[in-house]
């Protein structure tokens, strides 16, 4: 039996709008397998997204979905979780949506350690709006707004999330498909803010401008740069030059926000 | 009886011809037929599932035999 992805997808929605070779579909499949592994119920799960290619994902998922303003997914998701703490809240979005336009919401959702899972698909570019550079566009890379090369340093989403206070931070790639569902499932089971960054490819607006001859070249690059954290511990800084760590990068236990807030409500009632 | 461990089904309506499945199939079961993937060497399939896992377009189903 082949895996039944269709039971999680709204009828008649395939084929999806993503470009040929875009890894977002691979990540969506991983997310579906993770939902199955965690036994999430459709009626008790909310998927929240902002604007962008990655944020289109919740148009396909047959769950409670909320497509919000650009960058504001974490804020809307916080609202849902506060109103209905028993719900499983999943946020999906891209690197531009999450760390530039929604950077503020992103760091404060991390700081509060509210129990949700934020899947951030990092394709290094604003794909949907025409290939403008994002905070995750590599230094020197070309985008529609940096035609002579991007002078900016790059955000490390995982370090940003750890610094802001997220209690579970993991990173995978669209190439390593079997790892995606494991990381997302672990994030869903974690009590607190889980950030799962998936490195992705954008052949249309990033690959074309940056000398990737094909989708396959972009996938091979993801394969080459990814180093599991356990393997990285045995490598020298020179060997790690240009590599990206994958796997669970950070995990800690800290009081969860909705539980803390419930105590505030109880104290107020008792006063 | 062929040596295939699984039967690969291509849903042509969903396939956008990115060729990820063709490239990363370890036993070269798949090939490109103009703009869609096709099964060229069905007997070689070892049921590793790599094509189904990596297909971004929900266009491949691998049925284990």
The average pLDDT value of chain B, as a whole number, equals: 93
The best one-word shape of chain A is: globular
Q: Number of folding domains of chain B?
A: 1
- The low-confidence parts of chain B are none
Characteristics of this structure?
heterodimer, A: 271 residues, alpha/beta, Rossmann fold, eight-stranded mixed sheet, two-stranded antiparallel sheet, 10 strands, 18% strand, globular, B: 65 residues, alpha+beta, Alpha-Beta Plaits, 15% helix, 28% strand
Task: Walk me through the topology.
The complex is a heterodimer of chains A (271) and B (65).
Chain A: H1 24-38, E1 45-49, H2 57-60, E2 64-67, H3 73-83, E3 88-94, H4 95-101, H5 103-112, E4 117-122, E5 125-126, E6 132-133, H6 157-164, E7 168-173, H7 177-189, E8 194-199, H8 203-207, H9 215-225, E9 226-228, H10 229-232, E10 244-251, H11 257-270
Parallel strand pairs in A: 1-2, 1-3, 3-4, 4-8, 7-8, 9-10
Antiparallel strand pairs in A: 5-6, 7-10
Chain B: E1 6-10, H1 20-24, E2 30-33, E3 36-39, H2 50-54, E4 60-64
Antiparallel strand pairs in B: 1-4, 2-3
Summarize the structure.
The complex is a heterodimer of chains A (271) and B (65). With 271 residues, chain A is an alpha/beta fold.
Explain this structure.
The complex is a heterodimer of chains A (271) and B (65). With 271 residues, chain A is of the alpha/beta class. The longest helix of chain A is centred in the first third of the chain and has 15 residues, at 24-38. The relative contact order of chain A is 0.14. Chain A starts with 23 loop residues before the first helix and ends with a helix. Chain A has 11 helices and 10 strands. In chain A, strand 9 (226-228), helix 10 (229-232) and strand 10 form a beta-alpha-beta unit. Helix content of chain A is 38%, strand content 18%. In chain A, strands 2-1-3-4-8-7-10-9 form an 8-stranded mixed sheet, with helices on both faces. Chain A has a two-stranded antiparallel ribbon with strand order 5-6. Chain A has a single domain, classed as Rossmann fold (3-Layer(aba) Sandwich), CATH 3.40.50. Chain B is α+β, with helices and mostly antiparallel strands. Chain B has a single domain, classed as 2-Layer Sandwich (Alpha-Beta Plaits), CATH 3.30.70.20. Helices cover 15% and strands 28% of the residues of chain B. Chain B contains 2 helices and 4 strands, in the order E-H-E-E-H-E. In chain B, strands 1-4 form a two-stranded antiparallel ribbon. The longest helix of chain B has 5 residues, at 20-24. The mean pLDDT of chain B is 93. The interface between A and B is medium-sized, with 28 and 23 residues.
